[in-house]
Design brief:
The complex is a heterodimer. By secondary structure, chain A is mostly helical. Chain A is built from 19 helices and three strands. Chain A has a two-stranded antiparallel ribbon. The chains are: A mainly alpha, B alpha+beta.
C-alpha cells in the first residue's frame, strides 16, 4: 500500500516537471548558457585587469596575414611539409642502415648459430628466422623515420602552425564533406597510418572524425614509400633512358601519393553522403596563438606517445607474423610448402588483377607491417622459382643491396611492367596494416567502422588493379 | 576470363550492379526498405495519428481529408476506418470521426515515438532538417515504446520536438493546443512558428522556398486585406492570408523581437566587430552547443580577424580566442551593431 502511494507521489512529481518544461518552452538551454556567460563576464570584470594590448598580439596578426594569404598561404605550406618529409627520408637513411647492419647482419647470424647449438632446427627457425627477424626488420625500418617525423610534426603543431594549415585547407575538405583538420591527419598518415588515426582525435565532430579515420589509409605511409620507390625504379625508371630514369620514377611515386590524396577526398565525399550521412557533424576550429615550441617536452611526448607507442604495437603484431611467414614456407605437404600451394592455387585468380600469387600471399602474411612486404616477396619468389645462390633459405626474409639483383629475382618470378604498376597501386590501395586496424578499433570502438576501414580500400584496390590489368591486356 | 574485353565488360557490370543495389535513396536496398513500410499496420497507425492531430487542433475531420492526408483513395480509407472501428479505436458520428479513449492513447504513443525520434535526429545526428519528419515517420512504426523511453531518458526527457510541438509524456499527457494561425496574429505581436502544414503540397513548397521553418520567430509588421507582412527571424516576408493560415504560431507575449534589424555573422568584414544577437534555431544539437561553448551567446562581442587562404572559413575573435567558423555556420549566427574599428575586447 505504501509502495503504491509512493509511486503515485513520484508520478505526480514527474508530471509536474513535465508541465513546467512545457511552460518554459524550447529555448531554456540557450537562456541558461547565456546567463552563465553573463555571470562569468561580470565576475571577470570585477577581478581581472588587463594592462593595454599585448604587443605579441599585433605581431601574431602580421604572421597570420602572411601564412593565410591567398598568395603565400599554400606555397608556404607545401614548402614546409616537403621540408619535413625530406628531413625525415634523408635523415632516416643512416640510422636505418646502422640498425639494419646491427640487428639483421650482425645479430641475426649470431643468434642463429647460438640457437642452432641448443635447440632443434625448426625451433630456431621459428624463433630466430621467423619471430626475431620480423621484429628486427620492423624496428630497423620503422624506428628512425618515425623518431624524426613525429617530433618535427609535433614541433609544427606546438608552434601553432598546423591549425593554420587546417584553416587554409578547410574549403577543399568541406567540399568533400570532411573537416579541414583532416589535412593534418592525412599528413600524419604519410608518416604512419596508425599515428594518423590516433591524430584524428583532434577532430571534434563525430562524423568528420570517422571520415578521417577511414580514409587515413589512403595516405602512403612510411612503410610503403620504400616499396614504391624500389618498384618504380626497377619497372618504370627502367623503361626510359638512364638520364630520365630518376625523374620518371620519382614522378611515378609522387603520382601514386597524389592518387592516394585524390582517393581519400573522393572516398570522404562518398562516405559523407552515404553511410555516414546520419552521423552528427559540427565544425569549429580553434586558432591558438603562436607559441615558442617547448623543444624537450615535444621530443619527449612525441617519442613516448607516438613513436614508441606505435612501434610497440607494430612489434607485438610483427612477431606472430614472422612465425607465420617461417611456418608457411617450411611446413610441407607432399613435398611442397604451404606457401607454394597457396601461390599455385591463387595465381590464376591474381592474374585477373595483374598481380601474382606471391604478391597476394605476401600481403596476407605481411599484414602487421608494410615494411616487410618486399622482403617477404623476395623470399617467396626465390622459394617458388627454386633459385639458388640468393636469399638465406626458406622462411628467411631478406633484401638485396643492389637494385639489379632485386630486379633479376623479380623478373625470374615472371614480373612485367604491369605487375610493377599494379603492385604500386595495390600497395596504395589495400587493407591497413594490423597495427592500424587495431588502432582504428581502439579509436572508434566499433567493429562496423573497423570493417569498413579495412575492407573498403582492398575492394577499391582490386577494382583499380582489375581495370588497369584488363585495359593493359586489351591494348598489348 | 581470357578475353580482356569481356572481362572489362563483366567488371563494369559488377560495378553497375553494386551501385544499383547500394545507391542511397534510389538503390535496391533503399527501395526494399521503403516497400516494407506501406503495410496495413502502418496505414492504420498513420490514420490514428491524423485523427489525433485534427482533434488536438480542433478541426473536424472527414473521410476525404484523411484519405488526402495519407495519399490513398477514399475507398481504401473507408475500409481502414471500418477496421479501426471494429478494433474499437474510433467511432463514427454522422460524417465525423472521433477517436475513442483507447484510440487516443494508441495515437499518443505513436506521436510520442515520432517526436522523440525527431528530437533525437535533430540533436544527436547529422540528419538534415528536411529529413527529420520522413525518418521519424518510418521509425514511429518500428521503435518500441520501451526503446523510445530509453532514448528520451538519455536525452534528459525533452519536452518538445525540434519543430516546437510538445512531446506527450509517458503517461500520455500533453498540454492543450494553444497556437493560432499566422493570419490571426495582431500587428506588433511576437510569436514562434510551431508548425507548418504540409498539405496541400504547393503551399508547403512555397513556404519552404521562402525559408520559413518551425522554430523561427515571427514579428508581425502589418496586416492588410489580402496581405500579411511580418519579419521571420528578422527577414521581411509577405504572404497572402491563405498561405499565412498554413503557419501555426505560438504567441510569445513576453519576448522582444530580438532579431529585428540583425545581420548575419557571415556579412561581417575583416576587422569589423559586432554584438551577437543569437543563433538561429536551424542550428541544433551538437553544433549549437559547441558554438555556445565558445562564447557565441547573445551580448558577447565578436570580431572578424583572419580569412583563410581560400576565403572560407573565417577566423573570429571571441572572448580572447580565435575560432574559425565556416560560412554556412556563420550564416546561422545573428549579429548587430557592426562597427568598423578593431579592438581587442576585454571580457
Amino acid at each position: 500500500m505504501k509502495e503504491v502511494a509512493k509511486n503515485k507521489e513520484v508520478e505526480d512529481i514527474l508530471g509536474m516537471a513535465n508541465d513546467l518544461k512545457w511552460d518554459l518552452g524550447m529555448g531554456i538551454h540557450d537562456k541558461i548558457v547565456s546567463s552563465l556567460y553573463a555571470d562569468a563576464a561580470q565576475i571577470a570584470r570585477k577581478t581581472v585587469s588587463i594592462d593595454g594590448e599585448r604587443p605579441a598580439f599585433s605581431f601574431e596578426r602580421k604572421v597570420d596575414k602572411v601564412v593565410t594569404s591567398r598568395l603565400f598561404g599554400f606555397p608556404i605550406m607545401f614548402v614546409l611539409l616537403a621540408l619535413v618529409f625530406w628531413i625525415t627520408i634523408s635523415g632516416a637513411n643512416y640510422p636505418s642502415g646502422l640498425l639494419a647492419s646491427l640487428l639483421l647482419d650482425t645479430l641475426h647470424p649470431l643468434l642463429k648459430s647460438a640457437a642452432d647449438g641448443i635447440m632443434p632446427w625448426w625451433l630456431s627457425g621459428v624463433l630466430v628466422d621467423g619471430a626475431y627477424l620480423a621484429m628486427a626488420w620492423v624496428i630497423a625500418v620503422m624506428l628512425p623515420p618515425m623518431a624524426i617525423f613525429f617530433p618535427l610534426f609535433t614541433l609544427l603543431e606546438d608552434l601553432g602552425y598546423l591549425p593554420r594549415v587546417a584553416f587554409n585547407m578547410d574549403s577543399l575538405f568541406r567540399k568533400a564533406g570532411a573537416h579541414g583538420k583532416q589535412a593534418l591527419t592525412m599528413s600524419m598518415g604519410f608518416g604512419c597510418n596508425a599515428a594518423g588515426v590516433i591524430a584524428a582525435r583532434v577532430i571534434d565532430s563525430p562524423r568528420e572524425r570517422l571520415i578521417a579515420i577511414i580514409t587515413n589509409n589512403f595516405s602512403l605511409c612510411n612503410g610503403r614509400w620504400p616499396t614504391q620507390i624500389l618498384i618504380a625504379t626497377i619497372f618504370i625508371g627502367g623503361m626510359v633512358s638512364p638520364f630520365w630514369a630518376g625523374i620518371v620514377s620519382t614522378g611515378a611515386v609522387v603520382g601514386v601519393a597524389v592518387l592516394g590524396i585524390v582517393f581519400s577526398l573522393i572516398v570522404s565525399w562518398g562516405l559523407s553522403r552515404t553511410v555516414l550521412k546520419g552521423e552528427a557533424s559540427t565544425f569549429s576550429l580553434e586558432l591558438p596563438p603562436y607559441r615558442p615550441p617547448r623543444i624537450f617536452q615535444t621530443l619527449y611526448t612525441s617519442l613516448i606517445d607516438r613513436t614508441l607507442f606505435v612501434l610497440w604495437r607494430a612489434i607485438v603484431f610483427a612477431i606472430p607474423a614472422g612465425i607465420v611467414i617461417w611456418l608457411v614456407s617450411n611446413i610441407t605437404i607432399e613435398g611442397i610448402s604451404l606457401a607454394e600451394h597457396f601461390i599455385d592455387w591463387s595465381n590464376p585468380f591474381a592474374m585477373i588483377f595483374g598481380l601474382n600469387g606471391v604478391i597476394l600471399l605476401a600481403y596476407i602474411i605481411a599484414i602487421p607491417a608494410n615494411e616487410i612486404v618486399i622482403p617477404t616477396i623476395l623470399m617467396l619468389t626465390v622459394l617458388v622459382t627454386g633459385m639458388t645462390g640468393v636469399g638465406e633459405g626458406s622462411g628467411v626474409m631478406f633484401e638485396l643491396d643492389s637494385i639489379t639483383g632485386t630486379e633479376q629475382i623479380l623478373r625470374a618470378g615472371g614480373w612485367t611492367l604491369l605487375t610493377g604498376i599494379n603492385l604500386m597501386l595495390f600497395s596504395l590501395l589495400h587493407n591497413p596494416c594490423s597495427t592500424t586496424i587495431y588502432t582504428i578499433y581502439k579509436e572508434t570502438k566499433s567493429v562496423k567502422w573497423t570493417m569498413v576501414a579495412t575492407v573498403l580500400p582492398i575492394v577499391l584496390g582490386f577494382m583499380v588493379c582489375f581495370f588497369t590489368a584488363q585495359l593493359w591486356y586489351l591494348f598489348t | 576470363m581470357e578475353n580482356p574485353l569481356i572481362a572489362l565488360l563483366f567488371g563494369l557490370l559488377v560495378v553497375a550492379i553494386l551501385t544499383w543495389v547500394f545507391w542511397p535513396k534510389k538503390g535496391l536496398l533503399a527501395r526494399f526498405g521503403k516497400a516494407r513500410m506501406s503495410s496495413q499496420r502502418v496505414l492504420l497507425e498513420d490514420t490514428l495519428k491524423y485523427l489525433f492531430d485534427c482533434e488536438y487542433k480542433g478541426i473536424t475531420c472527414s473521410l476525404n481529408s484523411a484519405a488526402g492526408n495519407l495519399n490513398i483513395s477514399a475507398d481504401q480509407m473507408a475500409k481502414l476506418m471500418a477496421h479501426l472501428r471494429d478494433m474499437g479505436l474510433v467511432i463514427f458520428e454522422g460524417s465525423n470521426i472521433y477517436l475513442t479513449d483507447t484510440g487516443k492513447s494508441y495515437a499518443l504513443r505513436i506521436v510520442r515515438v515520432h517526436r522523440i525520434w525527431e528530437r533525437f535526429l535533430a540533436d544527436e545526428t547529422g540528419v538534415g532538417q528536411m529529413d527529420w519528419h520522413g525518418e521519424a515517420d518510418i521509425q514511429e512504426h518500428q521503435v518500441s515504446m520501451e526503446e523510445a523511453d530509453k532514448l528520451a531518458a538519455r536525452m534528459g526527457n525533452p519536452a518538445f520536438d525540434p519543430h516546437g510541438d510538445p512531446i506527450p509524456s509517458k503517461e500520455g499527457q500533453i498540454p492543450p493546443f494553444s497556437g493560432v494561425t499566422l493570419n490571426n496574429l495582431k500587428e506588433g505581436e511576437v510569436a514562434q512558428i510551431v508548425h507548418i502544414e504540409d498539405e496541400p503540397h504547393y503551399i508547403f513548397e512555397q513556404l519552404s522556398a521562402q525559408g520559413l521553418y518551425p522554430g523561427m520567430q515571427v514579428y508581425l509588421l502589418d496586416v492588410q486585406e489580402g496581405k500579411v507582412t511580418f519579419a521571420a527571424d528578422g527577414n521581411e516576408c509577405v504572404l497572402t492570408p491563405l498561405f499565412a493560415s498554413a503557419i501555426t504560431v505560438q504567441p510569445l507575449p513576453k519576448a522582444k523581437p530580438i532579431q529585428e534589424g540583425y545581420q548575419r555573422l557571415s556579412e561581417l568584414k575583416l576587422d569589423e566587430t559586432a554584438t551577437i544577437v543569437g543563433i538561429s534555431s536551424y542550428c541544433r544539437g551538437l553544433q549549437r552547443r559547441r558554438l555556445m561553448d565558445f562564447g557565441i551567446v547573445p551580448g558577447n562581442t565578436i570580431a572578424a580577424e583572419i580569412q583563410s587562404a581560400s576565403g572560407d572559413p573565417v577566423g573570429y575573435r571571441i572572448l580572447g580566442t580565435t575560432i574559425a567558423i565556416r560560412k554556412e555556420q556563420a550564416n546561422l549566427i545573428f549579429v548587430n551593431n557592426i562597427k568598423k574599428e578593431h579592438h581587442e575586447q576585454s571580457a
